[in-house]
Design brief:
Elements: H1 2-20, H2 24-34, E1 39-44, E2 50-55, E3 59-65, E4 72-80, E5 86-87
Antiparallel strand pairs: 1-2, 2-3, 3-4, 4-5
Length: 158
């Protein structure tokens, strides 16, 4: 009997957190409404993600997020001109960031590309693999590893 009462007490203690918890979708919609977005459409993508398109008098905003993790995968917005159409703008990267350009687009999940091409080294093959390359970088053509092997697998005694 005592165990049953303890179980009921623990369940009642945890129930307010369950009731108060909002889904990620509800939280995003509430934030959009606080930012002045009135026309809010919610749909699902083919991959099961949630897509929210919202409008206010000067902006059109699209959010795509994973409902299981809450990760925002896309957050894109465009200004709306006088005709009610979205007008894309290209941000000038050389313009001062302090001079208020009001257009920007954010991405929740951005994957950076880029390569730090180029090797640094002594100009020769510095590994110890006996491949016939110049290990010392002295450009004499000798593999400089101390053996007679010139990197050639054939027998030179012919």
């Amino acid at each position: 009997m005592m165990i049953k009462q303890l179980m009921i007490c623990f369940l009642l203690i945890g129930s307010p957190q369950i009731v108060a918890a909002q889904s990620v979708q509800d939280q995003i919609i509430a934030q959009l409404q606080q930012q002045g977005f009135t026309q809010i459409e919610v749909s699902r993508t083919w991959l099961g993600r949630v897509r929210i398109v919202s409008l206010r008098d000067d902006l059109q905003r699209e959010l795509v997020f994973n409902p299981q993790t809450g990760e925002i995968l896309r957050d894109f917005w465009q200004t709306i001109n006088g005709d009610g159409l979205a007008s894309p703008r290209i941000v000038d990267p050389f313009r001062d960031s302090g001079s208020g350009g009001g257009q920007s687009s954010g991405g929740g999940s951005s994957e950076g590309g880029g390569s730090s091409g180029g090797d640094s080294g002594s100009g020769g093959d510095d590994d110890d693999d006996d491949d016939g390359d110049d290990d010392d970088g002295d450009d004499d053509g000798d593999d400089d590893d101390g053996d007679d092997d010139d990197g050639d697998e054939s027998d030179d005694d012919d």
